[in-house]
Amino acid sequence: MGGEGGDPVRAEGAAAGEVTLDIQGLTKHFGGVTAVSNCSFRVPRNIVAGLIGPNGSGKTTLFNLLTGLLRSDGGDYFYKGEPMIGLTPHEIFERGISRTFQVIRVFREMTALENLVAVSRDGDLGEVRRRALELLDFVTLLRLKDEYAGNLSYGQQKLLEFVRALMSDPEVLLLDEPAAGVNRTLLNTLLDRIRQLRGQGKTILIVEHDMKVVMGHCEKIFVLDYGELIAEGLPGEIQRNEQVIEAYFGHK
Amino acid sequence: MSRRVLEVPAAGASLAEGLPARKAALRLAAALALLAFLLWPSLVNVYQVSFVFFGLQYVVLASSWNVISGFTGYVSFGHVAFFGIGSYTTAILMVKLGWPWYLTLPVAGFLAVAWAAFIGFPCLRLKGPYFAISMMGLNEVLRVVALSWESLTGGGLGITMPNAENSVSTYYAGLAVAALTVAMCYAIAHSRFGLRLAAIREDETAAEAMGVPTTRYKMYAFMLSAFWPGVIGGLVAYKLLYIEPDSTFFVAITVNMITMAMLGGKGTALGPVIGAAILYTAQELVWWYIPWLHLIAYGAFIILIVLFMPRGIMGFFIDRGWVAKGVIQ
Amino acid sequence: MALLELKDVEAGYGRIQILHRVSLGVKEKEVVAVIGPNGAGKSTTFKAVMGFIHYIGGEILFDGQDIVGFRPDQILGRGLAYVPQGRIVFRHMTVRENLEMGGYIERDKARLRQAMEYVFSLFPRLEERQKQLAGTMSGGEQQMLAMGRSLMAKPRMIMLDEPSLGLAPRFITLVFEKIVELSRSGITIMLVEQNAARALEISDRAYVLELGRNRYEGTGQDLLHNPEVKQMYLGG
Hints:
The complex is a heterotrimer.
Chain A: H1 8-12, E1 19-30, E2 33-44, E3 48-52, H2 59-66, E4 74-79, E5 82-83, H3 89-94, E6 97-99, H4 112-118, H5 125-138, H6 154-164, E7 172-176, H7 184-199, E8 203-207, H8 211-217, E9 220-225, E10 228-233, H9 235-240, H10 242-249
Helix pairs in contact in A: 4-5
Chain B: H1 13-17, H2 19-43, H3 46-71, H4 80-97, H5 101-123, H6 128-148, H7 150-153, E1 159-160, H8 167-189, H9 192-202, H10 204-209, H11 214-240, E2 242-243, H12 245-248, H13 251-264, H14 271-289, H15 294-308, H16 312-319
Antiparallel strand pairs in B: 1-2
Chain C: E1 2-13, E2 16-27, E3 31-35, H1 42-50, E4 54-62, E5 65-66, H2 72-78, E6 80-83, H3 95-102, H4 109-122, H5 124-128, H6 139-151, E7 157-161, H7 169-184, E8 188-192, H8 196-202, E9 205-210, E10 213-219, H9 220-224, H10 227-232
Helix pairs in contact in C: 3-6, 6-7
């Protein structure tokens, strides 16, 4: 039940408007280990989608491929019909794809406000500052604007990284384990904001281990195992999918 | 341009109440200090003028080092190379082409920048310790070139410039260079450029993923960090009227600028200035009064700083809230 | 009767509490598995036993003795060995040297040699490759080495933390076969595993944790065929 590998012509056709990310046969090897293996699926526009799979199934590697941090060993990927393979992280970012990291990478010895202003594009500083403050407020961090990011709690740092990825007003947001280590209150804030972003027309793909979050908040789920896509569908379907259960519970 | 933004009480808001008075006091102190600097040569003897001059030299070096190492996080162990290039540029232009000293200074600066651009391409791809050591190695290369290329540099014998009464002129030139260097560092620190450099320092991968053009900006920072050391190198050469490879490409000068910047607080604009002032004065005093203890005292001083004030003096002030944490509030 | 016993153990990292009154026991010569979805606190259980993390409350007894606050080398001295996650072998040392490091607390050279022969008898492949650099071995072989190294101190019980993590399927089979062999030779084994199916297949008993709490308990076979346990993994 994997995704179909489309051909590039189709990606540029009428379907382009509805499919935001078209991943076709992406592959990545590390030495003798294949982390991502001929992975194909399509993420529709304006959706909150989940990317799940047991440890080592290649989820973060896939994110790194999509954002240009890793060069793929094969396959293609298209964003709104445009080929993205081979672009640098900077170029991919410029086109509207932003991400957060599994291990938090906020700029620790800079204040929360500075974290946001640092990643802004050129332009009126007053405008940038206003937007940064707005985003901090969006995740209830406004009162901490002048605090060093390194002094914030883990959950607060996650929220900061989340809005930092929003500074460029990206169309696509790739979130790597946004719920890990975050207390329930902050998590609810985060999930609510993700819903709001979805309401604004954005496309959000979340790698996550917390099943309650995934099943409760994702409209569509893609499942990886050993670097391959083994299932995609609605939360209920995925929960009943034998192959997925076996992937998580263990192969005999 | 100025909008009424939501006023949120920042941490340490109670300090803000005393802020206008504090700021006025600081401005007054700065004005008085400036006056003192300007009047200095007419108040004291030649030795003391030199004393301050070499202190200003270190202000320039420490501040410039800070741009690539403190702001951007690419710690260089060979920054004296730019100083050396500047020194030799001035000396060669004066002695071989008869240029007046003040015209050689911009050339000295630009040649240092050219060298930075040349080595920046390969070396800024290196990380952490590898970058540091490659800088150190390249400095040694320059020193050996200066030692060997006798026709150009006079080799081990060095270059001697014609005698001149230059105590006062070099002092004021040095003051100007120091002021410009600090102004440049301050401008960088308080600009978006500086914030982006800090982002590169904090997490280059994340910065790049967030759209900061890291390769370009590192190069800019590196080139900016080379200019004023080149200029001051030329000026010092003229002041001393004699240079030779070992004392010009001297690794101890690098060590000095590093410890001064760290003492004062690398990563801030004022830190290296404070660090240079304190450490240079301390060095001279120790050398003057307890010369036999000089190295031990200096070493002990550095150890105490690293143990008790790892983020430097400015870091100490920031932790206590006397100085704001961020440059953009 | 239990060789290792945890009663209402609470522990965590700094201010974050991971284990909430976790209780479990391992009898002599048993193979007991601790399974559960991500974030269940499985590996944290081992770390609590070894004293690597912040202890908050509860009892941890080995062979009837309270070992809370014991240093890892003291715990090893009592006969409880720990094989951490990730096949941490000394990559630039040979297999033999790695094993010698495992026997570090043994001062008597004769006993050390004896221990090495014992480990070689259990892992003939390690004997074949004793001069090979650990870093050049396959993942499966490195896992053998890690296990063998833990046996150099002749422990009564070993705790295996995710032995199959990151291994190719054929090595996983090998590793689990080895675990069964070790059990047959008399060593008590507790293992934490992501691959619940395989772990339950070879276990006498097992505990299922979720979010740092006990959820289920039973024999390996019971839990293996319990649909509730499987659904738990997918948030059911």
